[in-house]
Every structure is written in structure tokens, then in C-alpha cells.
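Model: You mentioned two targets. I'll fold them one after the other.
Researcher: Yes, keep them separate.
Model: Target one:
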Amino acid sequence: MKTLQEKTFRWKLVETKTGAVLHLIEVDEDHFFIEQNYKKPSKYGVAYRNLKEKFPDFYMFWEIKNNRYTGRLLVGVFLSKREIDGFITSVLQSEEYKKHEDVRDEIPE
């Protein structure tokens, strides 16, 4: 594997005014990703709570640049091998992908 680009970032655990404890990924001084507030009574707050109930290690981060939301979202989930198919099926609302082979890239030493 050849490194094409490298970036250092900082991870923080922050607490909001409402007491929500959120993850924050700081990329640069004016560029970071903040976890969706699960306590927020909003469209995405409610959706996030529901997703976290089903997939506890699911994360949604909003991108902030120069103190403004960019409208972009970083999404990720930590899953065991046995959880992967259920997650993909729930996201795709389809099992079409299961017709394909489970091919993995080799990881060089």
C-alpha cells in the first residue's frame, strides 16, 4: 500500500449546553466534524437516535468549515462480520448485493 496523502486530526469528546456528550473530529483550526446531537428534537436527531438503537456503533458527523455547516455528512459504523449483511440490507432496502461474491483486497505487509 502506498500513502498518497496524510492528514493529522484530533478527536475530542465534548458536552453541549443540553448535556449531550458528542464526538468531535478536528481536522484543521476552522474545519471539524461534530457528531449529530442525539438529544435534538429534529429530523436528524430523531433519525440518529433510531439508528443508534438498531446499530449502537453507528456514527453521523456534520462537517463544519469556518463556523458554517457545509451540508456534508461523514457516516460510519463499526460492525462484526455477522452484523454486516443486516446493516447493508437495512440501508439499501434490498438484498440484491448478496448475489455478489465476498471478495477482499489483499493487505500488503
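Model: Target two:
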Amino acid sequence: MTLEEFERRVSFNGGHDRALGKWKILDVHHIPEIFQKQHEVDFYCSDGKSVYLLRIRQRAVEAYVKITGEIIYLIAELPFDVLDDKVIEKALAKFE
């Protein structure tokens, strides 16, 4: 996704869902209150230079994988009780 496409989605969305430091973020999915092992939640994230699809999975063991292609995937597997801004910030920090 290009920066222009991201900004179009921001416009359609009525703004960013969250802004964390240099990151502007759009939620792709509804965030469940209670996570199950099979749940994963996606976010479009832009640092002003590129757009990424951040995928967060709740797992007991932390793992961080970046997959570069037409879409740059940032896949974060980490333990958490509630998926909040702190978890998203922690995940993004691992890819900086």
C-alpha cells in the first residue's frame, strides 16, 4: 500500500484510529475483549515513509517477523492480557 492509499483510507475512516509517537495507525479489525489463541488483529501503520500491515497474535513466546513484498507485513507474537496501545507500541518498537 502506498502512502497515498493509506491517506485515502484515513480520509474514509474520518481520521487515524490511533497515533503512537511517529506512527499513524488504522485498525483493520474489531479488537476482541477476550483473545483466543486463534485470534489475530491487523493494523495499517505508517511512519510517514512507508505503510506496513502490523499483525498481532497473542502467544506465550515472543517472536517478531518482517515479510517484505507488495505489502510489508510486521508480524508480532507476544503475551498480553489486553490488546491496548502499550502492546501495539511494544510491537512496533521491535521493528525499528
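Researcher: Noted. Anything on target two?
Model: The CA atoms of residues 5 and 11 lie 10 Å apart.
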